Amino acid sequence: MFSIFIGTLFGNTAVVYVQDNIGWTLGYRLPTLGLLISLMIFLAGTPFYRHKVPFGSSFTRMARIMVAALRKWRVHLPSDPKELFELDLEEYVPKKGKFRIDSTPTIRFLNKASMKTGSTDPWMLCSVTRVQETKQMLRMIPILVATFIPTTMVAQANTLFVKQGTTLDGSIGSFKVPQASLGAFVTFSMLISVVLYDRFFVKIMQR
C-alpha cells in the first residue's frame, strides 16, 4: 500500500509538472518506462509465486451453495456439525492449495447445503468446506459497502479538486503549482495515515 501511494504521489507531482512544463511526449514516456520496469520485476518473481491451477468458476460454486440451501430450506440442521457432508481428508492437499475448513455457526442457513438428503448432485449437496468458502465471500460484502464512501471521496480529488485548481492562484513565489497536482495533498495525507496506522494504531489495538 505504501509503495502504491508513493507511485501515486510521483504521478501527481513530477509527472504532472513534466507534462505541463516540458511536454506530453516525455510526460507519457515516464509512466510507460515505470510500467515496463514494474512488469519486468513482476515477471522476474514468477518462480517464487504460488501457482494454483484453476478448477472452475468461483461464482458457479457459490451459486451451487445458494441453490442447494434453498432447495433444502425445510430441512432442520443437526446439532452436531459432524453430521454434515464433508470430503475425506485425503482430498485436501495443502501443497496444492486445498485446505479443509470446519463448519461455523454464522450464516447457518447455508449449512443446509451440506445436509445429506440422498442426492449427490452438486446443485443439491455441497461439502462443508465449499459452504465455508462461500461464507467467507459473503462476509466481504460489508467491507465492499464500507468502501463506497471513501471511494467517492477519492473521486472528488481527481475531479473537483482539479476544477477548483483552475480558479486558484497556484503561484508559490516563482513556482506555479499545476492544478492536477492538488490531488497530491490527499495522497500525502494517506501516506502519513498508513505510517501512523502501521506504527501506532496496530500496536495499540494489539495490547
From TrEMBL:
Keywords: Membrane, Transmembrane, Transmembrane helix. One of its GO terms (cellular component) is membrane. Gene3D superfamilies: MFS general substrate transporter like domains. GO terms for molecular function: transmembrane transporter activity. It comes from the Eukaryota. Its main location: membrane. It is a multi-pass membrane protein. The chain crosses the membrane at residues 28-49, 140-162, 182-202. It is found in: Membrane. InterPro entries: MFS_trans_sf (IPR036259), POT_fam (IPR000109). Belongs to the major facilitator superfamily. Proton-dependent oligopeptide transporter (POT/PTR) (TC 2.A.17) family. This is Uncharacterized protein.
